[in-house]
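Purpose: get a first structural picture of the assembly so the mutagenesis plan has something to point at.
Setup: two entries, given in the order below. No constraints added.
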Amino acid sequence: MDLSFTKEELAFRDEVRTFFKDNVPPETRRRLQEGRHTGKQELVEWTRILNKKGWAVAHWPKEYGGTGWTPVQQYIFLEELQSAPAPSPLAFGVSMVGPVIYTFGNEAQKKKYLPRIANLDDWWCQGFSEPGSGSDLASLKTTAKKKDGKYIINGQKTWTTLAQHADMIFCLCRTDPEAKKQSGISFIVFDMKSKGVTVRPIQTIDGGVEVNEVFFDDVEVPVENLIGEENKGWDYAKFLLGNERTNIARVGMSKERIRRIKQLASTVMAGDQPIIKDARFLEKLTATEIELKALELTQMRVVANESKNGKGKPDPASSILKIKGSDIQQTITELLLEVTGPFAMPYETGEEGRNEPDNWASPIAPGYFNYRKVSIYGGSNEIQRNIIAKAVLGL
Amino acid sequence: MDFDLSEEQRLLKESVDGLLADSYDFESRKKYAKEAGGYSKAQWSKFAEQGLLGLPFSEEDGGFGSGAVETMIVMEAMGRALVLEPYLATVILGGGFLRHGGSKDQKAAHLPGIIDGSKTLAFAQLEKNSRYDLADVSTTAKKKGAGWVIDGEKFVVLHGDTADTLVVTARTKGGQRDKTGIGAFLVPSNAKGVTVKGYPTQDSLRAADITFTNVEVGAEAAIGDPENALPLIERVVDDARIALCAEAVGAMEESLKTTMQYIKERKQFGVAIGTFQVLQHRGADMFVALEQARSMSYLATMAGGIDNAKERALSVAAAKVQIGRSARYVGQQAIQLHGGVGMTMEFKIGHYFKRLTMIESLFGDADFHLRRVADAGGFING
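Result (structure tokens, whole complex):
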């Protein structure tokens, strides 16, 4: 048993850390530190910097542009990326649809889509959830009917993150209405500019527009846009969601956020002393740091297990990463809110022409409101508990 | 990065688990607790035969020179079986003082007896007002000729009523809470002026309150520097905390297992109560608490090898916080999910709960260690 990194791994960490230090655009870094969203253009620029270095799709197999790093190296890379802080590559492309395409897609699809994902030439969004299908995803109703060598798609998706920027969508559609729930679903990709696609933004409680409703009204999609086999989409979706969980702990990001809390809490005053000197506050912050340390170790155990046993089957222990990871991320936004106190109240509409860098407090409350999402998405924390109960505890 | 046990460690785990599976079921434990001294001398001899009592001591001292991981393996197993014997008191605490700070002569005088199981030790540290502060020492050791005279009162000395030798912390200089001027002394429990009042503890183990009145010991009684033993005391107590973390992980693991087994079998409303989602989610949260505790037990075990006291203390303190919180959650929910039978002495789950509860406050509870981590600036800096 040895919890430390090897000399080679430490050298790798330094290399990655230096690259981020030298290459993340300062304005992007500042905005992330302040808890602001990364804009589309910002993410495109950053992804291209990463892609030039060969790190945009680091975890993909080498033949499709990946790095061939070990699971430990992948872990270090993500940790350093989040910790820098640098924007995470767009998950819908690199972590979700990319792996589905190189695993289940045909040669033409791999050639067509994969390089464009790596370079963020195509912005992808995810068409899974529907108004009536959240945790019970397999009850989805959007249909794809084959007609004259085309699929005709009708239905509605919702919670479609950043669909307003999207060029492409990967969509779960029902292709066999007779089949029972999980069977009869297909994984189809198509252009968001197709006729019959309507995007309606949903404003969330933080005031932002991150998610959308997407309506399909007789959208015509060429049959070659089916990924894998017809009616096997549920298997691909399960594969995709399994991949999603590996980076869900976000330990590096939480570390960076705790640094931010310490920085703010050392300057924001309460009477004659900074907030960090308040014993009650400091205890809450310390308790969170300890939880994060435990989570980091738990994540390392999952990674070590993956190094040993190969990726294949997702470790049910990774449900711990989702539950605790989201818990901690939410607690961190609470602590930031508490540091900021009444100065979190003014709502920045972007109309007053405020000088953004001076207004460090304005993203704090929206950040707190927005992060209630992390225990809901990616399989809600209640679903994760169901997974543990079934797969680990045998209940 | 590697969480696997080596081949030798795996064999050790198998042999300890095997020994306890054969001879330490819940009914046997009840019998052992009723023996004189509150534990089984026969079991203690078996531990000696298997080499467990010599595990951490160097080969030249007659031990096996094993490391922190081996101790963790043994403590986890003992936690699973709720072992009553004075392993912590004798091997980790008493033996720890000799291992980390003992002279050649002191080792020669005490280690063979520890390793062959013929002698036990105990650590007399807690005082009426010292709580968790190891530097808060009112018991005095005054110079007399070449030797020392010890006076004072110590409380809740684990296995203090059966120990042959006590390691006593006493002030040789300075004020009650000064960090310097503290010594650690080997005192035979039958020395003149030592009064031992033994009693059972809540978790069916034993402890004693011990009074020292004009107890005279020789110069050879002092372990290390009699005016600056605090770093040694902290070192040994950190080892004890690490061992307790592992023991708690073992006890939590067994608590969860027993509880899940119970809710799969217990039927109400015509179905196993484990089919109810509210209980399933409780089980899932117990699992999360256990695994987070296990992760921190690993961190603490690895920190055991760190000589830099500050760095070691940060990891050990953080682990004790996590273990304290997880132990409380897992222990309480284990009782809750058992319902009425969880409240009874005859059912084993309550005994796990009680042991876990006592571990929480041994050598610092979660609040105490949380403050230590906070004072050290936490893990994330710069």
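Chain B has three domains: 7-119, 122-227, 231-375.
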